[in-house]
Amino acid sequence: MKNEKSKCKDEKCPFHGTLRVRGRSFVGKVKKIYNKRAVVEFERFVYHPKYERYSKARTRLHARIPECLSDKINLNSTVKVSECRPISKIIHFVVVEKLK
Description:
By secondary structure, this protein is mainly beta. It is built from one helix and five strands; from the N terminus they run αβββββ.
């Protein structure tokens, strides 16, 4: 564990920095990767009372990638994101782990 701590110097890392995770968490696929963030897309079911049926809807979230996970995450990898404090204008989530 000491090697991981010395390796990751990211202050906004939920494991080695001061960023705290709270609230909701989602599992989705990475669709785009920017410098330190990823666009994560997942499907959900929305109920329409008028038609008494469910429909699929897709949601895209911008999530920050910590330094310690940046080499493991690629396009189309399944990740778990969790809510945190607002880091920037569009980033309110952080990648917690890679699932597949």
